[in-house]
């Protein structure tokens, strides 16, 4: 990938009240999903230097004004005048006020459920993340639709000690469905580097590189620069037959989990607690240990099968009518270092044997991509794309917010 540091645009402008036209001070101005941001000064003015010449999502937010998202291209970035509207009481807030306030125990349950879905439960990263201001969250649970909606009156602040970031989340939508165990959310985020002591910073940089490997951003950058193979990625057309009995049992379990979260204090989510009948619990446990897929088939694809040039030369169109399986294989840094040093040693048989054994891929992650519109997505060189139109599950999705990096991140930094 061509380094973003070799191309940049300067975004500047002024933020004013839409009615009075007076300048507005102290507004957050940032590039979505990056650590690039600033505030408006006393004259409502701001200036940002952005390491790209491609489209950016400029976010303007404030506690008492409606958030605004502007898509800005090179050549359109100078002397912007941005008019902001004061927030009115939203219909969502009116609906919430009209309902009975959930109990303290129910609220704790919903916070836990929301946190797991937003932050994730990914390896040794998510446990180092914490929502610092859960009091800004509001919950609306609908028993009929079995859906939980979450709203936030102010940006949600997430501390990620594993990656050294303080993340501000401007939440727009969050709906969790107990019927399907699916979550739909929309938000914009801004990353700030935490003040980390120098000795610990080396460990954090190492962890950032580990999380970059095999990530959605890593894949999209490799896709854009046409070096999937050398980056450890392979792409397959994927078809499968679902284990229907496991799916039936799983839905039964989801129904029980929904009841526990809605009605119990500190719900214990395990099969023996969910189902008091011992035989039922044993059977359900055995079924859930089965594979989700009875059988599947894959066909290796070439990059030309799912990409094409975009009329805007800075973008790459990525699209497929089939479900795609993305397989990522790589050796961990310690093994790569050992292999690099192999050329410097003699080729004794035991050393050759050890070298071949170390060629085993220790990282082997799979993700699945489904396009649900005919246009696909348009990828930029830094890996950024508008995620509407692409559904991702598997390893890339499991990382959630805890395992994500800002789009101005470079693994060579």
Describe this structure in words.
This protein is of the alpha+beta class and 413 residues long. It has helices spanning 91-97, 104-119, 198-212, 216-224, 228-231, 244-263, 271-274, 278-288, 333-340, 349-358, 395-398, and strands at residues 9-17, 28-31, 37-39, 45-50, 56-62, 65-72, 80-84, 129-131, 137-142, 147-152, 156-160, 165-177, 182-193, 233-242, 293-300, 307-309, 316-318, 324-330, 363-371, 377-379, 390-394. It folds into 4 domains: 4-84, Carboxypeptidase-like, regulatory domain (Immunoglobulin-like, Sandwich), CATH 2.60.40; 89-195; 198-241 and 294-413, no CATH class; 244-290. It is built from 11 helices and 21 strands. The strands form 5 sheets. Strands 8, 9, 10, 11, 12 and 13 form a 6-stranded antiparallel β-sheet that branches. The protein has a 5-stranded antiparallel β-sheet with strand order 15-14-18-19-21. It is globular. The two termini are 14 Å apart. The relative contact order is 0.13.
Let me know the largest β-sheet: 6 strands, antiparallel
Number of domains: 4
- Estimate the helix proportion, in percent: 25-40%
Termini separation: 14 Å
Strand-residue fraction? Answer: 25-35%
Radius of gyration: 24 Å
The unreliable regions are 1-5, 335-359
Number of strands: 21
* Category by helix and strand content: alpha+beta
Total number of helices: 11
What would the principal axes of the Cα set say about the shape?
A: globular
The overall average pLDDT, rounded, is 84
């Amino acid at each position: 990938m061509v380094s973003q540091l070799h191309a940049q645009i300067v975004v500047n402008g002024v933020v004013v009240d839409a009615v009075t036209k007076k300048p507005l001070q102290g507004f957050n101005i940032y590039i979505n999903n990056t650590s690039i941001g600033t505030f408006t000064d006393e004259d409502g003015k701001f200036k940002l230097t952005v390491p790209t010449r491609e489209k950016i999502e400029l976010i303007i937010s404030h506690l008492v004004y409606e958030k605004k998202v502007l898509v800005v291209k090179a050549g359109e970035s100078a002397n912007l005048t941005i008019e902001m509207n004061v927030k009115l009481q939203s219909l969502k807030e009116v609906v919430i006020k009209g309902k009975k306030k959930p109990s303290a125990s129910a609220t704790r349950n919903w916070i836990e459920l929301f946190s797991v879905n937003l932050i994730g439960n990914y390896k040794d990263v998510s446990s180092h993340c914490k929502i610092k201001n859960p009091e800004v969250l509001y919950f609306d649970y609908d028993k009929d639709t079995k859906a939980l909606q979450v709203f936030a009156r102010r940006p949600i602040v997430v501390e990620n000690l594993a990656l050294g970031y303080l993340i501000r989340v401007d939440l727009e939508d969050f709906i969790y469905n107990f019927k399907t165990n699916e979550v739909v959310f929309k938000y914009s985020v801004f990353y700030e580097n935490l003040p980390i002591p120098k000795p610990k910073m080396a460990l954090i940089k190492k962890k950032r590189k580990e999380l970059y490997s095999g990530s959605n951003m890593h894949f999209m950058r490799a896709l854009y620069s046409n070096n999937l193979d050398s980056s450890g990625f392979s792409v397959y057309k994927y078809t499968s037959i679902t284990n229907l009995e496991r799916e039936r049992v799983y839905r039964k379990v989801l129904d029980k989990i929904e009841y526990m979260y809605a009605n119990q204090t500190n719900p214990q989510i395990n099969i023996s607690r969910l189902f008091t009948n011992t035989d039922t619990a044993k059977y359900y446990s055995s079924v859930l240990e089965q594979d989700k897929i009875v059988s599947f088939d894959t066909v290796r694809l070439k990059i030309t099968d799912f990409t094409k040039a975009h009329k805007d030369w800075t973008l790459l169109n990525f699209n497929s009518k089939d479900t795609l399986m993305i397989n990522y294989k790589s050796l961990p840094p310690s093994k790569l270092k050992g292999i690099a040093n192999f050329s410097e040693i003699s080729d004794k048989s035991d050393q050759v044997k050890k070298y071949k054994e170390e060629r085993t891929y220790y990282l082997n992650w799979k993700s699945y991509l489904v396009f649900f519109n005919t246009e696909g997505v348009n990828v930029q060189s830094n890996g950024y794309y508008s995620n509407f139109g692409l559904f991702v599950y598997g390893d890339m999705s499991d990382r959630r917010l805890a395992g994500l990096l800002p789009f101005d991140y470079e693994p060579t930094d």
